[in-house]
Amino acid sequence: MTPLAIWRTLFMSPSHSWQGEQSRYVETLLFFILLSFFVGCYSLIKWLNHDHSLLVKTSLLLIGCEIIAGVVLRVLRSPDLALNIGFFGMVVHAIDIVYQSGGIVLSTQAFWIPLLIIAFFLAAKPLMASIWSMLVVMVSAWMVSRHLSGQEFPHLELTDSTAAVDIWSGMILPLVVIGIAQAYTVKQHYAAIQASEQALQSGQQIADQALQGKQQLSVVLEQASDNANQLGQVAAQLEQQSTSLHQQVNDLNLNCESQASAAEEMSQQLVPMTEGIDESDRFVTELKVRSETIRSQAEKSSDSLNASIEAIAQILSSNAEIMSVADLIT
User: Of 152, 188, 191, 310, which is most buried by a Cβ count within 10 Å?
Assistant: First the structure.
């Protein structure tokens, strides 16, 4: 795992919602505060060995500001505030080391000033970078002005060997830091360009798909237009059939009206027929009653007739006996 990955794990919030350009901004911020942290550690070791208390203090300030910037980024999720805190530590330490080593005109550490301006514009937004750059330029202009006016600046008391190391580190180390910063920034830009190209390709594919969809939609619209024409024809036919049906309904209404009139006449004719049927029912009922009466009388007459026949039979029997007696008498 690289130092940048460890630094990102320490100070990148796991629940952040940064995406796209904002995510690259935060990544660049983490890289520059890590780079400043390493510079502060190197400076602390260097000036501890030279026993320079003021530069040791500003080295500690630089290290502390970079750590605080990381904590602010993780806790408050405010990249701008974190970057300003990191810049503050960088500016204070860089200006102090240039001032303590003879001022910007004579200092072997003068390259840290242009490094600050490069870092501002590589890491920050244009407005913030411009403000910090103006501050650094104003301080540098002040030191140049004081030098031209003849003011003496502090000088580092170093041995020949340590002075050589100081010159090498003052001249080369800023250039190395600038190269590393530029390389990282170019890498970020290259990654952004690749992402843009991929997005462009994806957009082109989507556009091609949209064009195909447009063509398919055009075909569908043509079919829909044909279907609409067919539906219009069918609607016209339906309208004709509806007119014919309406006429048939009118005829049927007329027939119904005539049938209603005929039904009314039949109803009027049925009234006397009903009365006649009622009279017939009464007549039939009277006939039934009379028939019952006649049947009863017939049954009675039959009984009387049977009785008469029996009486006649008895009379005949009596006559036969009388005749036999008469014969005997005779």
Answer: 188
